[in-house]
Design brief:
Layout lengths: L18 E4 L5 E6 L5 H10 L2 H8 L8 H8 L6 E8 L2 E10 L13 E8 L8 H15 L4 E7 L3 H8 L6 E5 L2 E7 L4 H23 L4 E4 L8 H11 L6 E4 L5 E2 L2 E2 L13 E4 L6 H11 L3 E4 L9 H16 L3 E3 L5 E4 L6 E4 L7 E8 L2 H14 L3 E6 L8 H10 L5 E6 L5 H11 L5 E5 L7 H4 L7 H11 L1 E4 L2 H13 L7 E6 L2 H13 L3 E2 L4 E2 L6 H13 L5 E6 L7 H11 L6 E5 L23 H19 L13 H8 L6 E2 L2 H10 L7 E4 L2 H11 L3 E5 L13 E5 L2 H15 L4 E5 L5 E10 L3 E8 L2 H6 L2 E5 L4 H9 L18 H17 L3 E12 L2 E4 L2 E5 L15
Parallel strand pairs: 5-6, 9-10, 9-13, 13-14, 14-15, 18-19, 18-20, 20-21, 21-22, 23-24, 23-25, 23-26, 26-27
Antiparallel strand pairs: 1-2, 2-3, 3-4, 4-5, 6-8, 7-8, 11-12, 16-17, 16-19, 28-38, 29-32, 30-31, 30-32, 33-34, 33-36, 34-35, 36-37, 36-38
Helix pairs in contact: 6-11, 11-12, 12-14, 15-19, 16-19, 17-18, 20-21, 22-23, 25-26
Length: about 900
């Protein structure tokens, strides 16, 4: 085995290789490269391994690690020799490593692209998915240092290790000799390996939230006898909800709290503790943490405040809290959290500060704000919206909305997901998870900060573009609403009624005026009116009313129904409500304005799904229906495929943008080279410094040519004569050069071959402070710029996303033959979009990019100019399977 490369610092490893990861049972470990300081930990780890595990790893007894081997194992160069350790607290519980195979028949000094990989997991932690995690992270590290293949030697009887390689999703070749399997596989991600990793990620993160919401025992640390303290409120709420398990108050001063025996510390509790609710001042949490770590608590809910919301010192304490907890295998909700609720009658968990709970239902709710969470729970009860689970995560030091999306995806008790969001910890991951979850369960979100300045972004001067935010939610299938009232309106419909199959909506009622109001709102929301509104008349009986409803539902041109009803004076409205309930058959959604009652009136409730929501006005009923129609259309549309265009030279591209210390604009040559790495050609050009050079450039490029001023202010402004087109003669080139140089005050002038005439477009990348990297598209021109006629999508993009992006601007019909013009090659534009998306995925150092103009014609899409700015990547990217946040 080769020694460390001379001159490499064994303590200097890429920080991207360090991560907190979730295991298959929901616990966590900290993963990082090994350093020489880990030698003693490694010796202790080896000593805890069983004889069988050591035999499987080393093909022999190997009872002790000699000092020479210990130094060799713990001193690596993080390039040719890499070792990752999984830490639980201070203990190593697993080690994975690879060693580059030198020579490859080219001599011992020749570096190969293959490495031998091996790992070993402590006996008590086998079966938790640690080996799979190590393989995933080792493969990612190997790709970064230029490796392409792994090889492994595994004893045939080591079935558990063989399964790790077999189930990873790589194409593994095998050879068997004398009881040893020799395995080889390429480590480039395949569709199968990515799918395997994503599935493991979802299962692990869902399990970690399941542990949080299904504890078997709870300790309330800081339980108080003082009714004004939060420690009293949490304990009171737990007991009044009748939690199905033991509750242990922790209070050093009292023997009992609310009649329940108390313990001085969590360590004094005689039984295991699954969940600890921490309600002590922030200054005391470190001491509490020590006890929880020693006790082996699985999860924490920290309702204490005084952390990130107070400033930099509080934020540092918050990060230490989360890091320490995750390093010891725990997940944390909070700090500054309202708490967690599970309304499953088998659990009955109210580990929160909310005194009033809604009924049990089919909606899961995630909320960042504690104060708002209390109001949400109270309002849900009043509206008749039942919840399955509720998590208010406060400062989100650990558990975030992304974790809840993973949980609710496979939670059989949840059909609808509701979110109140202030920001995103990992916007790319959110978009990926929401897109997947939204295909089976609708997501309704309130995102604050639409018009106000977000405090976390104020210092940077960043501004979130609302058009881009809305486009991103639509791309991921998230139903965005503006207020909590709209959220409840939409949730009631989704929770109780089926999705519409189209946008044809019938209106039935007993008031012509209210029916027309509903019809006007339908048309304003781009819904189709299925026939003229039916007015049964003020004197209609309940039976006549039910017959009109039934006839509307039975029509083949009706996808949904709006019922508008004003109770008559002579007959109780309840009779009409019961008639409506009996007429409904559950195959088409119904919304109503009924009895001036909001929510689900008793007369309109049905067992299971099918209850008919009622709204205070027909406008609100129709708006809720319109959101549902748009979501149903998204859900039914083709998902598309994540395709990576061919002809990409990633290594060369990375060398161009490598390690920018600060933001800088690439010069023209480097910009062209970078785009060329992604198969994007810029129409050939030269920069001329004199009239003679301009003529030489035109002769070389071929006539006709275009000439442009190099000034940023002028180069795209034909109204300022900064651009001259279709120059076909040498004398004209000279004249244009002198005019442009005089206009800009610079001797440099662009001379470029004329591209085929087409529709002028603009395409670019930008880093959004809220959502990560966006790709945007629009048509060039003063009117488009003035109206902000641009469309946005978040990377990664499917082929369907690319097609939708190109078609989204209001001026897009100009690309498809408007008024008889020849249609542009939309496939070429879509390919250009996908290549830019690949560049954005690969190179987070690209802070902004603009291609203008892009001339779209029947002959293709021709890029005339590019502006690229690189810098340290600011966005938090989707870092891979089971890397927390």
């Amino acid at each position: 085995m080769p020694e460390a490369v001379p001159g490499r610092d064994p303590f200097d490893f890429p920080r991207s290789w360090e991560a907190d990861v979730v295991l298959s049972d929901g616990g966590t470990v900290h993963l990082r490269p090994i350093t020489p300081d880990d030698g003693e930990k490694l010796r202790e780890f080896h000593g805890r391994l069983s004889e069988r595990t050591r035999y499987f790893r080393y093909f022999g007894p190997y009872p002790r690690i000699p000092q020479r081997d210990l130094e060799r194992f713990s001193t690596v160069d993080h390039h040719d020799r890499v070792a990752l350790i999984a830490l639980l607290g201070d203990d190593i519980v697993a080690v994975g490593r690879f060693d580059r195979l030198h020579g490859d028949n080219h001599g011992d000094d020749q570096r190969g692209d293959s490495a031998e990989v091996a790992f070993v997991v402590e006996d008590g932690h086998q079966g938790r998915g640690v080996g799979s995690i190590l393989l995933e992270h080792l493969a990612a590290a190997a790709k970064e240092v230029g490796l392409a293949r792994f090889e492994a030697e595994v004893l045939a009887e080591n079935g558990q290790m063989v399964r790790v390689f077999r189930d990873a999703g790589y194409q593994v070749s095998r050879a068997f000799e004398e009881g040893v399997l020799h395995l080889e596989f390429a480590i480039d991600p395949t569709d199968e390996s990515v799918a395997v990793a994503r599935a493991r990620e979802q299962a692990a993160e869902a399990r970690s939230v399941h542990n949080l919401l299904h504890p078997r025992s709870i300790a309330v640390i800081g339980a108080s006898t003082d009714p004004t303290k939060i420690g009293h409120a949490v304990l009171k709420n737990l007991l009044e909800a009748d939690f199905n398990g033991p509750v242990y108050p922790v209070n050093a001063e009292h023997r009992a709290v609310r009649g329940v025996r108390a313990y001085p510390t969590v360590l004094d509790i005689p039984d295991d503790v699954d969940l600890a609710v921490v309600a002590v001042p922030a200054a005391s949490v470190d001491e509490v943490m020590d006890g929880c770590l020693a006790k082996g608590v699985k999860a924490l809910v920290v309702v204490s405040s005084g952390y990130g919301e107070t400033g930099p010192d509080g934020l540092s304490a918050e990060r230490r809290l989360a890091a320490e907890a995750r390093a010891h295998g725990m997940r944390v909700v909070g700090p500054n959290a309202l708490g967690v609720i599970n309304l499953d009658p088998k659990i009955r968990l109210n580990a929160s500060l909310a005194p009033k709970l809604p009924a049990r239902g089919r909606a899961g709710f995630f909320c960042q704000s504690g104060a708002l969470g209390t109001a949400i729970l109270a309002n849900a009860a009043g509206w008749g919206l039942g919840l399955s689970t509720f998590v208010s995560a406060g400062n989100r030091a650990d558990v975030s909305g992304n974790d809840l999306l993973q949980y609710w995806e496979t939670d059989p008790a949840t059909d609808v997901v509701l979110l109140y969001l202030e920001s995103f910890g990992n916007p790319r991951k959110f978009a990926r998870l929401a897109r997947r979850l939204g295909r089976t369960k609708p997501i309704v979100a309130v995102k604050s900060g639409r018009h106000a300045v977000v405090p976390g972004l104020a210092a940077t001067g960043a501004k979130v573009d609302e058009a881009s935010v809305q486009a991103l939610f639509e791309q991921a299938g998230v139903i965005r609403v503006d207020s909590l009232a709209q959220l409840f309106d939409t949730a009631l419909l989704l929770a109780h009624q089926p999705l519409p199959k189209g946008k044809r909506v019938a209106v039935v009622g007993n008031s012509t005026a209210i029916g027309l109001l509903a019809a006007d709102t339908l048309l304003a929301q781009d819904l189709d009116l299925a026939g003229y509104p039916v007015d049964v008349g003020a004197q209609a009986t309940p039976e006549e009313f039910a017959k009109a409803v039934q006839e509307a539902l039975d029509r083949s041109d009706t996808d949904a129904l709006v019922v508008v009803f004003v109770p008559p004076i002579a007959v109780p409205g309840a009779a009409y409500a019961r008639a409506l309930k009996e007429a409904a058959h559950g195959s088409k959604p119904i919304v109503s304005t009924f009895l001036a009652v909001e929510g689900i009136p008793d007369e309109l409730k049905m067992p299971g799904k099918g209850s008919i929501p009622s709204y205070a006005s027909p406008e609100r009923a129709v708006l809720a229906l319109a959101r549902t129609v748009r979501y149903a259309r998204w859900r039914a549309a083709p998902q598309g495929n994540f395709t990576r265009p061919g002809g990409i030279d990633l290594d060369r591209a990375r060398s161009i943008v490598d390690n920018p210390g600060s933001e800088l604009r690439l010069d023209d040559r480097k910009a062209v080279d970078l785009l060329e790495c992604y198969g994007i050609d810029v129409v050939p050009f030269r920069i001329a410094h004199s009239a003679d050079e301009a003529v030489e450039a035109a002769d070389e490029l071929g006539y006709p040519v275009a000439m442009k001023a190099t000034s940023e202010r002028l180069r795209h402004r034909t109204d300022l004569v900064g651009v001259r087109l279709d120059i076909a003669q040498r004398e004209s080139v000279k004249a244009a050069y002198h005019d442009l140089a005089a206009l800009s005050g610079k001797p440099d002038v662009y001379v470029q071959r004329m591209a085929p005439k087409g529709v002028s477009c603009v395409l670019g990348l930008q880093d959004d402070p809220s959502f990560g990297t966006l790709i945007w598209f629009g048509l060039s021109g003063l009117v488009s710029d003035l109206l902000g006629d641009r469309a946005y999508r978040a990377v990664p993009l499917t082929d369907t996303d690319a097609a939708e992006l190109v078609a989204a601007p209001k001026a897009a019909p100009l690309l498809t033959g408007y008024r008889g013009d020849e249609p542009a090659d939309l496939k070429a534009l879509q390919d250009l979009v996908l290549r830019l998306a690949a560049l954005a995925e690969d190179l987070p150092e690209v802070r902004s990019l603009k291609l203008e103009p892009v001339l779209a014609s029947a002959a293709g899409a021709f890029v005339s100019s590019a502006r690229i700015v690189i810098g340290p990547p600011p966005s938090l990217h989707d870092a891979g399977p089971r890397r927390l946040r």
